[in-house]
Amino acid sequence: MDKSTSGSPIPERVLLGPGPSTVDGRVLRAMSRPLIGHLDPEFLQLMDATQKMLRQVMGTDNRMTFAIPGTGSAGMEASIVNLVEPGDRVVVAVCGVFGARLAEQARRNGAEVVTVEGEWGAPVDPAAVAEAIVAGDTKVVAVVHAETSTGVLQPLDEIIAAAHAQDALVVVDAVTSLGGHPVRLDDWGVDVCYSGTQKCLSCPPGLAPVSFNDRALECVKNRSTPVRSWYLDVGLLDGYWGQDRAYHHTAPISMAYALHEALLMVCEEGLDARHQRHRRHHLGLVAGLEAMGMRMQVENPEHRLWSLNAVRVPEGVDEASVRSELLTRFGIEIGGGLGPLAGQIWRFGFMGASSTENNVLLVLAALEAALHSQGVAAAPGAGVAAAIEALATD
Amino acid sequence: MDKSTSGSPIPERVLLGPGPSTVDGRVLRAMSRPLIGHLDPEFLQLMDATQKMLRQVMGTDNRMTFAIPGTGSAGMEASIVNLVEPGDRVVVAVCGVFGARLAEQARRNGAEVVTVEGEWGAPVDPAAVAEAIVAGDTKVVAVVHAETSTGVLQPLDEIIAAAHAQDALVVVDAVTSLGGHPVRLDDWGVDVCYSGTQKCLSCPPGLAPVSFNDRALECVKNRSTPVRSWYLDVGLLDGYWGQDRAYHHTAPISMAYALHEALLMVCEEGLDARHQRHRRHHLGLVAGLEAMGMRMQVENPEHRLWSLNAVRVPEGVDEASVRSELLTRFGIEIGGGLGPLAGQIWRFGFMGASSTENNVLLVLAALEAALHSQGVAAAPGAGVAAAIEALATD
Lengths: 394, 394
What we know:
Two copies of one chain form a homodimer.
Chain A: E1 14-15, H1 25-31, H2 41-58, E2 64-68, H3 72-83, E3 89-94, H4 97-108, E4 112-117, H5 126-134, E5 138-144, E6 146-147, E7 152-153, H6 157-165, E8 169-173, H7 185-188, E9 192-194, E10 208-212, H8 214-221, H9 234-241, H10 253-269, H11 271-291, E11 308-312, H12 319-330, E12 332-333, E13 335-336, E14 345-349, H13 357-373, H14 382-393
Parallel strand pairs in A: 1-12, 3-4, 3-5, 5-8, 8-9
Antiparallel strand pairs in A: 2-10, 6-7, 9-10, 11-14, 13-14
């Protein structure tokens, strides 16, 4: 057969984009173990252990805490498709790509969608969301905790309080926060939460951790129309993940091995230590970028994600050329902007195993070198120097 | 943290159930390579090479031939959700679990579903399906080529001809046939086909190869309502897999490495040789089982799958105990029956790398040993002897 199908060898990359993040060799080795069946007693034990660790990491006792067999966006769709019925009023906070995606998915499920828009680079105003919630018979409120497209950390407490005062359910997107920022579903009163594996959990992409509390499951049970998706129907998924262990789909065995090992590593590090590590390297990176004369897309430091750092591209710089030089010369992947921010920002993911002191220093030095080679007037070394200072004081 | 989360080591298993099948070490090693980004130029090349090989294996020139980021059932849902709109008439041939699942998915999409039922263990009568097609304004005809729950190979030509005479689109489930039986979409005139990776392609579960021809894509384009699933919307997926390379979801990178390598191995073996290998070991196994006095669930040899062999459990035998002994004493996984066949059949998957001469002899010998230890009167060695004869003459 045509040998051109074989492709080239996979290059080494330093993964500092919006995901996937670096995956530890221990997780890769666990993933590559020989397969066993998805109903094998040994596999069912691994599922149990995975659920137990997911509950710890998500800060919840929710029984129905498990992994959807798809990527983060499948987790989003699972959350929406199970709760929303045609005609339901759904309020969505939108200040980036993923809020907009939530609104689109709710619309496709026949919801009456009310979006509360915010500037791309700041959280959505919680008071405005609260106002939208009380303006009608709201059933679901959906909000992105960590907006990957802008680097914004959204405050949740006021929104959750307003939703619960109206008896509405709260869906939270924690794709880019889980494992990097505190996420405490039960303390916060989140009803449904979804995430992805390829961000701060540092597992390959392909599974979506989700959690439904009893209130949310009750809502699913009381639907007057069937869940439109068979694949993502939480009632059917409960048959497999719950006591019955009934066949539903063939679980992605290798991905399940990987998630199990990645969660073990999260638990071994400890959540507090892991969050602080993300914070420390975020502060070091920001100090370096600002010392290079750049401006963060998110102005208020309190609203900046530790896991995803969005910075304005300096005037007159060809952002795509810089990214391309980082990739081809240094093997470093960073992200560009999406939607209205395309061409205007760079996104530096410091998630999970990618969030290291080495990577802070390396990417700043490489960025200085790339700007220098593209003839941008700057003082090479300033960014690295500032990061060294910041890392030393923290 | 609690050490009890770490679980036990993964045991070695001989995988002769309905999937997953054995995955070659070469595929496991490819899967465990370090990750690169899902928009990395090197990854896009790997996607191109994967599409090219998928087209070869599926016997099609369809541009839109790619891998859905989910298991085989997500491939099924992608096929249905894109073609079906509320009120559409959909005819489904049902003689097992997966035909019934197709009907259920079509119903959840608001279709007017007409099922044509067949006995579990024989194909659905093509003439009855043709009759159902002409009885109304049929838009989609869905049929399972290889029914994993019964071991039936469904003849397709008469059904496809009847559908096309009415201008209806044909969806074919090739989950358990692709890579083990000939599948030639373009020669046969199949409009949409989906499969899974964990059967005769011998790749871990987690991706669903699908193919849409231009006629099917035209139908999607002309919908009057939006596709209900955002995650599985083929128009959006085309944005990522097609020329634009626009971000949609984060591709399951490691699974994509695995599928690429598994397809390389299929292409290196050659499709004809691979199909003949599946046929040969099927005939050897059947000879052995029949020599042991057992009866195949599918009476007509022409309608038996080579990849999935369903045999009636002998009267008076506790089928679960035998399966359990095979698993715990010999490390061999076989499948039980589903739905109305629960407790009545065993299913032996000989798919991809699991379809070997060694496995034919091993599973027959182990089954003889298990029946012997459970006190079933039989002549040990008879099954193995018959298989040796059959393998020698073929």
